[in-house]
Every structure is written in structure tokens, then in C-alpha cells.
Q: What sequence folds into this?
């Protein structure tokens, strides 16, 4: 209860910060960044999202937080667009199911993109497979609407959810993010390598970009590249840092 009121006050006081972590290709060229929120509380220090996002989801504060993240992301993309050194970068934003269920979500996104002048193809949303468990038709319509506005979608933590593979055919997503649990064991577990090979093949068949997250070591990076993974994210390349440092 105390944390809830502290978070509410923290939001009002502007204590949220957007961090970012690079996503690189096999030549370690930076393709884009994933935005990751942090809360800098004067009392508690830097608080990771695992400690307040679930709370924010329960209380509905995630809507306000999500609007803040979307605004920051669009503002940042507009800044990057003006510099030849950064104009190619994409920025991925994590979405909670609750945000997706907001009736005017697509309008909100379009409004922020227009406000800052965000180019098409640069803003990306990361959704987990769990959002596909309810009202799939509505989710498909929403993602199609966003796609038409130049917003891309990625399936986060891919391979860990309970959803059937059959939805992939209908779903307007452009990227699969292989969950870190697979990356952790790719080097010495043949079954993990087989799962990753399957995801890569699935990605090719559906025309999807395949990213591995949580890459921490050089051997993991090499093995994932051998298996055909397109892009990589993890401490090996960079920890999340304030997005202004990109
Ligand atoms: O940065 P870190 O690895 O600690 O993030 C932990 C979790 O918090 C991840 O699952 C990530 O998806 C989630 N998360 C980070 N930033 C956001 C955000 O802006 N919105 C939502 N809904 N989740 C976020
Ligand atoms: O949205 P998602 O659940 O994918 O969030 C990614 C989380 O993974 C963030 O909390 C981020 O800080 C964390 N992370 C990113 N790279 C690494 C890594 O190489 N190793 C570990 N252990 N965590 C990572
Ligand atoms: Mn993510
Ligand atoms: Na993830």
C-alpha cells in the first residue's frame, strides 16, 4: 500500500526514467534500442520495473505510465530522426495487456507520433504471447491498424507462453524475440539449439525478424548467429543505460 502511494507521487514528481538497451546485428551494428523503464525514488533509489510494473498493472497506474513511456519514446525517435548518425534506429516499447485493451489505444499512438513527427517503421511494440489469450480478433485488428500507421510489433519472451503456434499465421507481427531462458543454455544443450533452429525456421517461413535477448557471452553470440538468428540483445553488447546516452 505504501509503495502504491509512493509510486503515484513518484509519477507526479517526474521520477520515472527511460533506459534503453541496444539490439545489434551479427556485425554488432546497432539496429535499434529497447526502452526499459526505471523509477528513481529519492527514498529507495533506482527501482527496476519488476518491482513496480505488476503493482502498476493491478492498480491501473500502468495506463498513465504507459502513456508517459509512449510520449518519451516518440519524442526520442523524433530527435534521432534529425541526426544522420541515429536516424536508422528503431525503438521498442514494452506494452502491458491492459494498455492494449484501452479503447482508444491506436488513436493515442497516432496522436503522439503526429505530435512529434515520428517516421514510419521506427516505433515497435513488444507484446508477450499472453495478450493473445483473450480476444484474438480484436488484437489482430488493433495490430493491423498500428501497422498501417507505421508501427511494428514484436512477440517478446517467445517460446515461453502457452499460445498455439496457429495464431502466428493470422497475427500481424514482424518480429520474434527468443526468450533469454533459451539463450542461457544454447551453447551446451542440443535440445535448446533445436528449439532455436525451429524458431528461426518459423521466422523465415513467416517473414519475421528473429532476435535473441539476454546474450551475455561471446560463445552464445556465435552459436546464435550460426543457428541463423538475425539480431542480438544483452549485457555482452551493453547494459541498459539512460536513453539520453544512446
Ligand atoms: O529492464 P528489466 O530487464 O529489469 O525489465 C523487467 C521487465 O519489465 C521486463 O519484462 C520488461 O518487459 C518490463 N518493462 C520494462 N519497461 C517497461 C515498460 O515501459 N512498460 C511495461 N509494461 N513493461 C516494461
Ligand atoms: O521486456 P523483457 O522481459 O524482455 O525485458 C528484458 C529484461 O532483461 C530487462 O529487465 C533487461 O534489463 C534484462 N536483460 C537484458 N539483457 C540481459 C542480459 O544479458 N542478461 C540478463 N540476465 N538480463 C538481461
Ligand atoms: Mn521486452
Ligand atoms: Na523478453
A:
Amino acid at each position: 500500500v505504501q509503495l502504491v502511494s509512493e509510486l503515484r507521487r513518484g509519477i507526479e514528481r517526474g521520477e520515472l526514467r527511460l533506459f534503453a538497451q541496444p539490439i545489434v546485428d551479427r556485425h554488432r551494428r546497432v539496429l535499434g534500442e529497447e526502452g526499459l523503464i526505471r523509477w528513481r525514488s529519492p527514498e529507495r533509489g533506482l527501482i527496476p520495473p519488476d518491482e513496480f510494473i505488476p503493482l502498476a498493472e493491478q492498480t491501473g497506474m500502468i495506463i498513465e505510465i504507459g502513456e508517459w513511456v509512449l510520449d518519451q519514446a516518440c519524442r526520442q525517435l523524433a530527435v534521432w530522426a534529425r541526426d544522420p548518425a541515429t536516424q536508422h534506429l528503431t525503438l521498442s516499447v514494452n506494452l502491458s495487456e491492459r494498455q492494449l485493451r484501452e479503447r482508444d489505444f491506436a488513436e493515442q499512438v497516432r496522436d503522439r507520433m503526429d505530435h512529434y513527427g515520428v517516421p514510419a517503421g521506427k516505433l515497435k511494440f513488444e507484446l508477450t504471447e499472453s495478450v493473445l489469450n483473450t480476444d484474438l480478433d480484436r488484437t489482430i485488428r488493433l495490430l493491423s491498424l498500428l501497422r498501417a500507421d507505421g508501427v511494428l510489433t514484436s512477440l517478446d519472451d517467445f517460446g515461453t507462453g502457452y499460445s498455439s503456434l496457429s495464431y502466428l499465421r493470422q497475427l500481424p507481427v514482424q518480429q520474434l524475440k527468443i526468450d533469454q531462458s533459451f539463450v542461457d543454455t544454447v551453447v551446451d544443450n542440443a535440445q535448446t539449439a533445436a528449439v532455436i533452429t525451429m524458431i528461426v525456421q518459423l521466422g523465415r517461413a513467416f517473414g519475421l525478424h528473429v532476435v535473441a535477448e539476454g546474450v551475455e557471452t561471446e560463445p552464445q553470440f556465435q552459436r546464435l548467429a550460426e543457428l541463423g538468428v538475425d539480431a542480438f540483445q544483452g549485457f555482452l553488447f551493453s547494459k541498459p543505460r539512460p536513453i539520453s546516452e544512446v
